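User: Can you predict the 3D structure for this chain?
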Amino acid sequence: MKLSLPILFISFSVLLISCSTSKKTSGEKNTTSSNNSSVTNPAGNRKKTFTQPLNIDRKEFVSFAKTLLGTRYKYASAVPANGLDCSGFIYYVFGHFNVKAPRSSVDFTNEGETIDAKNAEPGDIILFTGSDNSSGIVGHMGIITENAPVLKFIHSASGKSVGVIINALTGYYKTHFVKVIRILK
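Assistant: Here is the predicted structure, written as structure tokens:
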């Protein structure tokens, strides 16, 4: 079956939007974006969930996340048997380690310590805008799996590649990259 270019573009465009569960709020800005542009911060001054780094073994964290590879994508789900959206995937992984994490990707905007991508370690969280890159609002996320020779992350993607997969920080993802945050020690 041959797909037309517009259908492929639309399919690819929805890749990240489905994890965005919040709406833009009035004028709050966050200027910690890696591309030095202002990022709208709908999380505002929300109290942080992670007030100190968590003592979870990074290798175990990533290994458990990888057990979910191939789990199908399902919007608004944090139950692997039903499918997982991006934040549901992260929520489920943290839950395995008895940690209650925020449930939406945008709620990770102010969490943890911002880390330069070149210093990212397996287990760090990577944040992206949704499909509307100009909004600057975090709408997708994943877990860093490796950072050499290229940064890779595991996430639950919608669109053309549906479900929990590993991707490199290239192309589409690089243009939607917001920042890497460190939550684990």
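The first strand starts at residue 29 and ends at 30. Residues 1-18, 20-40 have pLDDT under 50 and may be disordered.
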